[in-house]
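User: Before I run my own analysis I want an independent prediction to cross-check against. Here's the chain; please return only the structure tokens and, at the end, one sentence I can use as a sanity check.
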Amino acid sequence: MFSAQSHTSKMRKPSHNKRFHSAVALSLSVLSAFFASVAPEGQKAFSYGGSDDGYGDQRVARLSPQSVLTWWSHDATGYHPAVGLLIENSSSRDLSGVLIRFQGRFLDLRNGYTQVARDEWDGEFHRNQQKFIKLRGPTPYELPIDKDQWPRIECKVMCRAGTSNDDATQDLVVTRIDRITMTDEEAMEKLRNDQGRRIISRQTAAQNEPSRRPKETREAKEPRREPVKPLVATAGSLKADRAPDRPAPPKAPTTINRTGLNRLLAQTNVAGLGDDFFAFEQAFKRPRETDAKDAAYTWAKFVPDADGVEIIVGSKGRTGKADIILAVIPQFLVSQESQVITLAQLLYKKHKTDRLKGPTYSVRYLPSGRVQVGALSGTGCRGAIFFPRGQVGNENNYLIQLSRLPEDLDNLLAAQARRVPMLSVYGPFAGIDTSN
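Assistant: Structure tokens:
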């Protein structure tokens, strides 16, 4: 009896252990499945910088730098670190009208001093469209003759499109300032002529790499070779065998890429002399700057989407009509003088059946130097084109002036330029000092 019970107890122990191990294994499998399902969700919740789920691309507008150029910009105050970029709208939506802010940080690696340059625009910016941007440090340097002793400046350019969220800030480029001095106009001209350093993203480089041929497996069979056929001699023609001429395939229509001043000249809704300020807002968006302190004249500065062109409109009294127009055109945008004359004709648009006469060239000798002028005239309109007279600042611009007022335009602008800061562009051409 005793031996039978002991034998039974010995047989039950393995059964009890099996149940216990089975329960433990089942619990472990359930826990493993639970953590496996939770892990991807946890990774998504804390992966702010990644774009595997595509959420970042939908939320943030992306800009892609295509080319970069750095230099030391020279002006009357000294040498400033500067950077120019060609950027492209690589996002999936049109960014026209979206305010895009740019910031450039120039870090002096010798002492850690950082200066910041800012710029912004909200003009036309379609998908895959490219635009130029220039940022220059505000604090000037004195550069020694030996280039090895020049400051080592690191530049970082960032941007933010249409949002105030810090997570939307995008780093465009980090580079060093090259040891070369240029004016801003010379540098931007080089960048436009594709003389900057090209920037290729890793994704684009991977796409351009030739695809690797997969290794053949041992089971792959060699292609069957056809038996070599014997050669047979045949009589040929004395004329050289030549395939008949085939018509060349039709060429794809070329799309004209208008940039800078050409884009403005191709615009269909340009406002001009005699139009209301509302027409200028419709053509060039709201003014960047206004001055209505004096009841005699109201001034507004509009910035078209033309890479640096400014249009200053003056209205006598409070009528809101364009009685005076000044157009400022950087020299690097102009390849032919006819472009400036065409813009003057567009701003004279009120008389569509009449064309401006001129320019009639003359030269003025002012205390500040020589100025070349081309006089313009039309029905109820007088004006002129002032040609660039220097390489620095406002002296390196073309200036168009048009007026439908009977007053002497030069004397009127000279008096207004001393009071209205935006009219300081007229100072070098009138021989006056508007710094005070």
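Sanity check: The longest helix spans residues 2-46.
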